[in-house]
Amino acid sequence: MKKFIGMRTLKTAVGATLAIIISSALGLKYAAAAGIIVILSIQNTKKTSIYLAMQRFGSTILALFIAGVLFTIVGYTPVAFGLYLIIFIPLAVKFKMADGIVVSSVLVSHLLVERSISPYWIKNELLLMGVGAGIGILFNIYMPKIDREIKKDQIYIEDKMIEILAHMAKTLRSQSVYIGEEQLFKELQERLIIGSERAYRNLNNYVNEESKYYVKYMEMRTLQFEILKYMRGNFERFYKTFAQTEIVAAFTERVALDLHENNNAEGLLEDLKSVFEACSIQKLPETREEFENRAILFQFLKDLEYLLEVKRNFILKTKEY
């Protein structure tokens, strides 16, 4: 059952409240603005939170400078604020500070209302940003670990791939495509997307070897998924079952059984060479139909080889970390 109030919601509410209390205690005007900044600063990852805080600090300094110049020349009028936006927004985008446009403009509006760019008000706006962004970063230091969820994703993904390969072996023998195959691929794809998102979120919160591993793992499985989709297309072109088909089907079943996370695929790749040899010593095709079927089987084996090479390369690279 999904929680009604999540961790991010709780942190946002508590952080915004605390920001307003601290800003008021410091004697800052428009203390509620610090609470709004906290709301915009609480993110899903530590990295994003810090990055946005830096953007907003930079955009605030730029905004206050432009507004100060324009309010001095044009006066504290709506026209001056419009000119400020015309100049500030393109510059904020150019300097990659677009996420700070709204917050910085809200702070500038305080100067417009107060009709002043005195050091007191400049300090007031900078402190509002400092309190809001600072609490946002502070509250984002704690991020609940999602390792367990990622491990569950791994198990689910492996189980689905095993199931798909097992059905491929059956299809090779019977030429009868599994009815639920489309659903299997759909479920696998959806979980790969979820797992990849979790892995990257974990990396942005905890930059360590384990979090990097999860990202690489999801990338490896995603590539294998694309290979499986390509292999699946071969079944539409099969006509009959031949001796070579049984050899390939048996090996496909073995791959399914040994597809787990820690298998480096070296043994399977060695055995695949034997499968190629076993197929090559079979008598030459006598009909066009048999020739085409043999060619499709060969392509299927090459795709299976690529699938295993992707796994082997993943294991080799992870050993380097």
UniProtKB/TrEMBL annotation:
Predominant location: membrane
Ranges annotated as spanning the membrane: 12-40, 61-89, 125-143
Keyword Cell membrane: yes
One family name in Pfam for this protein: ArAE_1
Membrane topology: Multi-pass membrane protein
Keyword line: Cell membrane, Membrane, Transmembrane, Transmembrane helix
Gene Ontology cellular-component terms listed: plasma membrane
Annotated compartments: Cell membrane
Superkingdom of source: Bacteria
The Putative aromatic acid exporter C-terminal domain, residue ranges: 147-312
Protein name, UniProt field: Uncharacterized membrane protein YgaE, UPF0421/DUF939 family
Organism listed in the record: Clostridium cavendishii DSM 21758
